[in-house]
Amino acid sequence: MEHPNKAIQHFRRQLAILFVLKYALPLTTVYAFVWGAAVLVLRAAADVESKSLLWGLAGVVVCLAVAVALARRRMPTETAMRALMDGQNGCGGLLMAEAEQELGGWRQRMPSLTPPTVRWDGRRGGALLALAAGFVLVCFLAPKGLADLSADAPLDVGQEITRLMTQIALLKAEAVLDPKRAGALAEKLAELREHASGKEPARTLEALDHLRHLTQEAARQAAEQSTQSHQRLGAAQALAQALEQNSDLLDPQLAKEMLAELAGLMDDGSLDPELMQALRQQKLNGKQMNKLAQAILGNKNGLMRRVAKLHKAGLIDDELLARCRKAGECDCEGLRDFLCKNKCYSLDDLKSKGKFGGKGGITRGPGHAPMTWGKPGSEDDFQFKEDVLPPSALDSLKSTPLQEMRGGNVVHKKSSDPAASGALDGAAAGSGSANTQTILPMHRASVERYFERQTPNKK
Amino acid sequence: MSNEVVAPALLQPEELAPAVESTTKLREQLDRQLLGRSELHNLVLVAVLSRGHLLLEGVPGVGKTALVKALAQLLHLDFKRVQFTPDLMPGDILGAHILQETSEGRREMQFRPGPVFTNLLLADEINRASPKTQSALLEAMQERAVTLLGTTRPLPEPFFVLASQNPIELEGTYPLPEAQLDRFLFKLIVSTVEADVLDRIISTRRHGAPPAPTWSMSADELRRVFTIVDRVYLPRPVSRYISRLVAATHAGCAEAPPPVRNYVAHGASPRAAIAIAESARAFALLAGRPTVGFDDIKAVAAPVLNHRLILNYKARLDRVDAFAVVRELLAALEETGLNLPSDMKVREVQHG
Fold first, then answer.
1. pLDDT by 10s per residue, chain A, length 459
2. How far, in Å, CA of B244 to CA of B237, rounded?
3. Are B41 and B76 in the same domain?
4. What residues in B contact A94, CB-CB < 8 Å?
5. CB atoms B348 and A88 under 8 Å
6. Which residues of A touch B13 (CB under 8 A)?
7. Which of A84, A88, A101 sits opposite B9 (nearest CB)?
8. Is residue A381 part of a domain?
9. Are residues A237 and A304 in the same domain?
10. B261 and B137 belong to one structural domain
11. Distance (Å) from the C-alpha of residue B286 to the closest C-alpha of chain A?
């Protein structure tokens, strides 16, 4: 037989453990989830070391302490436990009476006591706690990179930077950009590639846009320059071909002036000095003339290749490319036909004659055909539509005072002023729809600044 | 000055033994005289030892009157029987003043005591008397005294009313009012006995007459047993359980189980709690114990409460009786007050 008090203590211990478990499981589970979340946040946001976060284990101890306190509060009284033992062991009230009375001879007759067992299903709570513990473990063991929210998300601008690098290299190769400038731009691009951040994509993208704009602007200027050169070379080619192939049709003065014009057009250092010298002296033989034509053609082709490269690299658009290509076209056959038809004695004569005519139509030709006028129009049978002002508008117009600007000052004319006679006689300021406004003192300075006048007071 | 009763020292085995021996003999004699009703006899003895009144309900011929007669014979108590009829008047029970001429020749009103002035009154078919006559018993049952013409006369000690009523012949009957029902400690249902018992009665007894008792209890001995019953100890958890049990018979109580909430119109009175406590003491004594346990309460709860619970019409429609409600109440109410959470269960101790 177990002593009653021992049996009760045994039961009390059993019950206390169950109560502590009952309260500790949910508390610890909740704490574990909170702790895990805190670990994750601190590791990610504040870059806190995992080891220092192990201090959170102290919270488990706190949870246990709270569970113990709750269990103590929830524990049934000893009287109730004694009553349960009494009922369960069939003591018939003797065990209960023992707490209040001396049993005396009944002590020996008390039946043997067996502490009852209490069942509590903690599987669900246990499973949740295991889940929470797993969560904490994962939060601690998660790779730092995965957890690091402060790290910049990479911004994928590699493709754009590579394209810009290629463009800059092309501009450098084509001498559009000087090497120093090209190097600086490339350096900037490399820097951008290194510091490209998903945190501030606008900054990176703006910088890229700026660099793109710089390169495209340089390319556009180069293309425009090439267009002008191409146009010049086209003109030079036309002159050269005319001199080479139509020398018999040319007046000597015109040929002389054309050679001088050609020399002026080709005076860019691209020609062989000997050939250039001969051109300046207007002593070109046939061979040299042919050589000049080849040189012009070569230069034109070189320019077009350059512009085509810029276009292929995406630095200029199709329109500019077409414009450039068109600028260098020379209508040599047309010039020859023109020279055959029109006898020109000087270059100015040729130019003035060339201004007229054209090929006709509205889309072809230079469009400088002389304007012709037919019969001039007349105002007869035309009448403007009259619009009668409403009386109120008329009254307000009449009540509007006349103003005139005199010496920088706004002067209100008196109604008695003879010069103020007319429809606006006696008009008062501000009450009508006339374009007169009273200038408020606060606006005076603005108005004066607008008209750049000085008031007498400021003088 | 405090009115609290100081609990006497716990009855020691040697003090308890004579009373247990006497009551055991009494029960044996009762079982010997009336066959096959030992459980009923136990409860009847509990009522007697608790000095409570008893209402026996059963069809005619099941031995209600025989039980009361046998009890009176075994206890050596004065026994009177009143057959209640609709024309029975209160004076027929309590007694009346009659004009008498004395030896000196003077005429004076003298009190002629009625049959209530006895130790054991058998009120046969009590529900046949009018409410006026039934209520004549109220004072006698509660105060154990009779007041007539301003004079209160105490009834002999002990005084028990053992009433019987027939549950099937309801025509011309007057159901007992709740106030009177409440004065009965127990209401016991006397049912028919089994065939084997009937066979024994027929074969061993001529005209059903019980054998003469071989032992009887004297009035003094009965008083001593009463004293012992009073000393049976009621532990605090048990008294607390009684209080909760009676409180839970009211539908408004927080601990009331669903059957009580659904079917009980009026719960038990404080007198019921007292009755349970007193009868549980007697029950424990009959079991040979000096203390009352939870099982004693459960044993006497149904006979104490069944006639005190006033059920509503819904119970009648659902054919739910008071016994079923008490059974549910006992099953639902946790007796120890351990108040464990719902997800914790105490596993019953298995006794070898």
1. 457 778 888 888 888 999 999 999 999 999 999 999 988 888 887 777 878 888 888 889 999 999 999 998 888 888 888 888 888 888 888 888 888 888 888 888 888 888 888 888 888 889 999 999 999 999 888 876 665 555 556 677 788 888 888 888 888 888 888 888 888 888 888 888 777 766 677 878 888 888 888 888 888 888 888 888 888 888 888 778 777 777 777 777 777 788 888 788 777 777 778 878 877 777 777 787 888 888 888 888 888 888 888 888 888 888 888 888 888 777 777 777 777 777 777 777 777 766 555 554 555 555 555 556 666 677 777 777 777 777 777 777 777 666 555 544 554 544 444 444 445 444 444 444 445 567 777 787 777 777 765 555 544
2. 10
3. yes
4. 289-291, 293
5. yes
6. 105-106, 109
7. A101
8. no
9. yes
10. no
11. 12
Shared domain check, B189 and B298 = no
Domain span at residue A192 reads: 154-355
Contact check, Cβ <8 Å, A84/B336: yes
Taking CB atoms and an 8 Å limit, are B296 and A82 in contact across chains? no
In a shared domain, residues B264 and B226: no
Q: Give the type of residue at B151.
A: T
Report which DSSP code applies to B54.
E
Residues 245-284 of B with CB under 8 A from A: 284
Minimal Cβ distance to B343: which of A77, A116, A120 = A120
B331: CATH: 1.10.8.80
Could you list the residue range(s) of the whole structural domain that residue B246 is in?
232-335
Domain shared by A139 and A162, yes or no: no
Residue B279 lies in a domain: yes
Residue B236, in any domain of the structure: yes
**Chain B touched by A18 (CB under 8 Å):** yes
Q: Are residues A207 and A224 in the same domain?
A: yes
**Any idea what the CATH number is for the domain that residue B169 is in?**
3.40.50.300
Q: A118, A147, A176 — which closes off a domain?
A: A147
C-alpha distances out from residue A58 to A20, A31, A255, Å: 17, 11, 106
- Decide: helix, strand or coil at residue B234: coil
Residue B273 maps to a domain:
yes
Structurally, how many domains does chain A consist of?
A: 3
Residue spans of beta strands (DSSP E) within chain B: 53-57, 79-83, 95-101, 107-113, 120-124, 145-148, 151-154, 160-165, 184-189, 264-266, 310-311, 344-347
> What is the tally of structural domains in chain B?
2
Q: Are residues B61 and B182 in the same domain?
A: yes
N- to C-terminal Cα distance for chain B? 50
Q: How many other C-beta atoms lie within 10 A of the C-beta of residue B285?
A: 27
Kindly state whether residues A72 and A204 are assigned to the same domain.
Answer: no
**Which residues in A lie closer than 8 A to residue B337 (C-beta atoms)?**
76-77, 79-80, 83
Cβ <8 Å between B235 and A114 = no
**Chain-chain contact of A101 with B7 (C-beta, under 8 angstroms):** yes
A219 and A113 in a single domain? The answer is: no
With CB atoms and an 8 Å threshold, state whether A96 touches B351.
no
| Cα dihedral A164, A166, A168, A171 sign | negative
Q: Coil, strand, or helix at residue A321?
A: helix
- Vertex B269, ends B222 and B319: CA angle to 5°? 105
CA-nearest residue of chain A to B351? A89
Show which of residues 71-100 on chain A sit within 8 Å of chain B, judged by CB atoms: 74, 76-77, 79-84, 86-94, 96-97, 99-100
In angstroms, the CA A240 to CA A256 distance is 12
Q: Which residues of B touch A91 (CB under 8 A)?
A: 293
Residue among B7, B291, B349 whose CB faces A116 most closely: B349
A-proximal residues of B, 185-224, CB under 8 Å? none
CA max distance for chain B = 86
Q: Are A344 and A403 part of one and the same domain?
A: no
Instruction: Kindly state whether residues B179 and B236 are assigned to the same domain.
Output: no
DSSP string, B138-197: HHHHHHSEEEETTEEEEPPSS-EEEEEE-SS--TT--PPPHHHHTTEEEEEE-PPPPHHH
Flag whether B271 is in a domain. Answer: yes
Nearest-by-CA chain B residue for A84: B336
Among A326, A355, A384, residue at a domain's last position: A355
Cα–Cα distance measured from residue A220 to residue A214, given in angstroms and rounded to the nearest whole number: 10
Q: Are residues A201 and A342 in the same domain?
A: yes
- Cβ of B347 within 8 Å of Cβ of A117? The answer is yes
Chain B residues whose CB is inside 8 A of the A99 CB are: 235
